[in-house]
Amino acid sequence: MSLSELSTCTTILVGRLASYDGSTLIARNEDAGTAVDPKKFVVVKPGNQPRDYHAKLSKFTLKLPDNPLRYTAIPNAVATSGIWGEAGINADNVAMSATETITTNERILGADPLVTNGVGEEDLLTVTLPYIHSAREGVKRVGEILKTYGTYESNGIIFSDVNEIWYMETAGGHHWVAQRIPDDAYVVAPNQTGIQEIDFDDPDHFMFADDLQQFVKDNHLNLGQGFNFREIFGSHSQLDHHYNTPRAWYAQRYFSSDSVTDQDPMSDSLPFISYADKKITIEDIKYVLSSHYQDTPYDPFALGASRATAPFRPIGINRTQELCVLQLRPNLPAGRSAIQWVAMAANPFNTLVPFFTNVNDTPASYRDTTNSLDSHNAYWANRLISLIVADHFQLLISDVESYQEKTLGYGHQRIAELDQQLNGLTGDELTEALTSANQITADHVMAATDELLTTLVAKGGNQVLGAFTRENY
């Protein structure tokens, strides 16, 4: 498979001291190879978790442990090509997002070839998230799977709990490294190997394959000083300069404008670990993961834009299927700590909706996605909106922005209200209350989405080719 045939995503990680409320925040756009690849948001209960896992895209199989945890996921609507669970939070409030497809180089693939029937993005969330009790355990579990079975692709894998965020990158068929993101830092990962200098004597911040150093030495892979994982295992191609690095450039320009004024969108030396000018909010993450290089010369939606003026792949691309921001809040009871913010379809035109994850089920409008268009389903309604607005951007974007502001405001209001209303509830009573509360939240946002879709169809319909009024002639 080529990069374009896989999910080609953008990731943002925000340490707890860098976020607006002390939460750990991990977020990722899931970008498919085509514009339409429907997704659904579900809860997987222990009784529905497979015990003998069989992949669809490869012959990878795995006997899974007993006693899995309940977890949320955002899999494909129809599992003909596999589950692709992508992002979720388990009952122990451990979050996982998998995967950020990344690049490597020929020397690595020669020394440690990819494994045709190894593990891949299709499988990783399903075979990992129900069995881990901390972010570190997530890294260790995937590391063991890579050592035993290998992988057929290069990926970045994210784990978080209320205290830590770990970013893990695979290299070749069996090798990997993981770095703990500093609490006061953020990371943007745009389909490139990102981790830089490794400190092999710092187990609090780095984990890695047992033989990583010897493997690099034996195969003469380190061409520089120190041990820079990106330089050894990554790529510096023309594709990177137009497809990957501009996304990191734009995000760092937004979060760290005081310190990155001289960076170039095609630079090979953008930092992996970055520090923001101010605390980072949910809205900041949504803005960056929706971006199309607005307020730069490279915006494809600008008046007069062409391929010549917009040579870089946007972050908020039409091929985005969903965005999840996984928020683990400190200083709250565990039963109300975890929130999965979900946005369906193309990010410039959708909205994030907060769902508590300590629930028995998800709202039908997010759960029951099919391959057939249904405007009352969150995925399909937002896919329609993105199609209409992209063709009438200047006319309709103000309606979308008003909708986004109102619905995101409502989302924050709901969290604050529920934190007050449900204070003191525990166990099954709390789980049932949060399940019902999520339904109310979804119903409100879907009503606003239906209203927006109606407005866009009415306004956009007057501007289509073939429209005719006597006043114009």
From TrEMBL:
Membrane-spanning segments: none
Keyword annotations: Dipeptidase, Hydrolase, Protease
Enzyme Commission numbers on file: 3.4.-.-
Top-level taxonomic group: Bacteria
Pfam families: Peptidase_C69
Reactions catalysed according to its record: an L-aminoacyl-L-amino acid + H2O = 2 an L-alpha-amino acid
Class of the enzyme per the UniProt entry, highest EC level: hydrolase
Cleaved signal peptide residues: none
Alphabetized InterPro entries for the sequence: C69_dipept_A-like, Peptidase_C69
UniProt record similarity statement: Belongs to the peptidase C69 family.
NCBIfam families (UniProt xref): C69_fam_dipept (NF033678)
Name of the featured protein: Dipeptidase
Species the sequence originates in: Furfurilactobacillus curtus
Phylogenetic lineage: Bacteria, Bacillati, Bacillota, Bacilli, Lactobacillales
